[in-house]
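Sample pair:
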Amino acid sequence: MPAAADPVQIPGPKGALEGEAVAVSDAVHAVVIIPGSGPVDRDGNGPPVGLNSDSYRLLAEGLAEHGVASIRIDKRGFYGSSAAIEDPNDVTIGDYAEDVRGWVAKARGFAPCVWLAGHSEGGLVALAAAADPPEGLCGLILIATAGRPMGQLLIEQVKANPAMAPLMPELTSIVADLEAGRTRDPATISAPLQGLFAPGVQRYMTDLFGHDPVLIAQGWRGPALILQGDRDVQIKPLDAELLAKAMPQAERIDLPGATHMLKADQPGQPFATYTDPALPLHPEALPAIAGFLAKHRKAE
């Protein structure tokens, strides 16, 4: 039977932030699961390209089977946290980090030792939150987390599509402007790129692109797990390598055949792990996380 989950809330800027908690009796560890970029909900689902993975829900339920409590959260401005701010794009990585520190305090009611499990962009948020570590934070679990600034990663991802080659000079120029804190008039952007650089998203990117994960990671001296799939088309093993060099104390585990959604790649079905919630997590994912936590049995 799936672990029982209950809605939980903490105060947000203008309204409540909401998540879903899975309590485990006598748990030593609790994990706060931080979603990736865009309108991704607490379960790992959302509108982008019909994202319907249930990866975060599966992670929370699987952790419970290993005796680990969890809270998986909706980011401010989205879903259960929609009342927290009026415009979900009116946010910074620092804002998300502040929210996560609040979730750590909440999670301490479920276990004395709290870990931040950030997926994709959520890993950057976890690193930022740990730069000013809240009481009870024991360590980080970075899942498919970028080791390079997000603007440079965006260029790489778009460049991988040969059809976008004619637009690469323009895209590179836009990213450079956003990195410098300058937005572009959408009317001046080529139609195929306008969806990537909508006005509200541009505002968010001016902050997002200014963060270097490696520089932030160098400041964290506590326990850390870096989990990376070798079939991830969004975040590469190079990113895990950069993070591991920045945090020599970290443990790195590579998942053979795992995609960005922490599931095993389905040959001939490149989007299956993004759209099929019935697919389980990669068979080595939960044992890797549970085994890592087991090495830190004593609450810190």
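The two ends are 31 Å apart (CA to CA).
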